[in-house]
Design goal:
Blueprint lengths: L2 H11 L4 H5 L4 H22 L4 H19 L6 H10 L6 H16 L6 H23 L5 H20 L1 H6 L7 H6 L4 H5 L9 H24 L9 H19 L13 H14 L2
Helix pairs in contact: 1-3, 1-5, 3-5, 3-6, 3-7, 4-6, 6-7, 7-8, 8-12, 8-13, 12-13, 13-14
Length: 282
């Protein structure tokens, strides 16, 4: 298997909505974003699949070393072998990759976030930096596009957090800020409950509506930041925004029933939204 086949399988096999936006890129840009996305998946999987935090920490340390060696000219892992030919052309730096690893290390060190600023910092590393790199690969001519990409990354990550409240709780993790749980009168044990009624209540619905409203507001802020000059090149990001926003709307319409199930869109729906976004240009 070639490095290019490896990263393609990694991206397609994840089932991520991002994959559908990649389909509309030129071959070179699609190869670059697919390799970068595969890197993000590899390091994220280290944390998600780890049973021993010590082993996971060692694996992330290995990835840090692999980044150093790759930018020195000797990549070993197929992901880095696929990514490095595109790094210079699209402004991908070792610092970008290290920041993504930093975010994964936060997941190893803590399973709670005290407040909104601490969650924002985490999202900056695991989503804002990813958005910045993606925007560079898609093609940007304005620094304002970087601000848009960071804001969009935050909105996408918040949508993931809302969708995955149940999955995360089964791993003993709560990403919703503890200060906001207290604001709505919710104890963390309610989210960790694993039997009916799974912690559903009017208070939980109010908490989740608060989260969804914030995510919608950040989507609006992000799209307002996107310069007109870069709207065409950044269309893949807009596709992702539209797909994730539809997912958020589905979660809202279902009454935020996310504790016992993982709500998702069908592949056909994702492809239709991406195609419609391309047709409409927004």
């Amino acid at each position: 298997m070639t490095p290019e086949q490896y990263v393609q399988d990694k991206a397609a096999g994840s089932g991520s909505s991002f994959y559908y936006a990649f389909l509309f890129l030129s071959p070179e840009r699609r190869a670059a974003i697919t390799a970068f996305y595969a890197f993000c998946r590899e390091v994220d999987d280290v944390v998600d699949e780890a049973r021993d935090p010590g082993v996971a920490a060692a694996k992330l340390a290995w990835w840090r070393g692999e980044v150093v060696e790759s930018f020195s000219g000797t990549p070993h892992h197929p992901v880095m072998q696929a990514l490095m030919p595109h790094a210079k052309a699209f402004g991908i730096t070792a610092e970008h990759l290290d920041s993504v690893i930093d975010g994964c290390e936060i997941d190893l060190r803590q399973s709670r976030f005290l407040d909104w600023p601490s969650l924002q910092h985490y999202c900056h590393l695991v989503a804002g930096i990813v958005g910045e790199v993606a925007a560079s690969i898609f093609g940007r001519s304005s620094e304002a596009t970087t601000a848009y990409a960071h804001r969009l990354g935050l909105a996408l990550q918040l949508t993931n957090i809302i969708r995955d409240v149940g999955d995360d709780s089964r791993r003993g993790r709560i990403y919703l800020p503890l200060a906001e749980l207290r604001q709505f009168g919710i104890d963390s044990q309610e989210l960790l409950q694993r039997s009916p009624p799974w912690g559903y209540s009017d208070r939980f619905t109010a908490l989740m509506k608060f989260q969804a409203d914030r995510a919608h507001r950040i989507y609006d802020e992000a799209l307002a930041l996107l310069p007109e000059a870069d709207r065409a090149s950044q269309l893949p990001g807009v596709m992702m925004a539209n797909i994730y926003r539809r997912l958020l709307q589905e979660i809202e319409a279902g009454g935020f029933q996310v504790l016992h199930q993982r709500i998702s869109l069908t592949p056909l729906t994702k492809l239709w939204i991406a195609t419609r976004t391309r047709w409409r240009g927004r």
